Amino acid sequence: MSFFRCARSAEDPVVLVESCQKALLWILSTHQGKTLRRCWIDQPYGEEEITRLEQELLPAMEQFLARIGEIDARLEAARQAEIERLQSAMAAAS
């Protein structure tokens, strides 16, 4: 699922999470055993911290995005049902 279709994506916090997830995946896939430098602390992330990112943070992001997808699908289905109800009512009134 991609939330980047939204024209106002810079204002959408869900898009920010998806963007962070993609950036983190890219960083982790390209770090190749090196430490990850952090700009606000002097100690870089080593293998233990990188493993925690992979095992804890990425799954949490995936769960968050999946849940948002479920909520969006339910809202979209409800919207479509309302449109169909209104169209049926209009057809019956004609």
Please explain how this structure is put together.
The chain is built from 2 helices and no strands. Helices cover 69% and strands 0% of the residues. The protein has one domain (9-93). The radius of gyration is 21 Å and the shape is rod-shaped. With 94 residues, the chain is mostly helical.
Strand content: under 5%
Helix proportion range: 55-70%
Low-confidence stretches: none
Global structural class: mainly alpha
Please state the average pLDDT score.
Answer: 89
Largest sheet: none
Give the CA-based shape: rod-shaped
Q: So how many helices? A: 2
Order of helices and strands, N to C? Answer: HH
Number of domains: 1
Write the layout of secondary structure elements.
Layout: H1 13-30, H2 47-93
Give the tags.
about 70% helix; mainly alpha; about 90 residues
Explain briefly what this protein structure is.
This protein has 94 residues and is mostly helical.
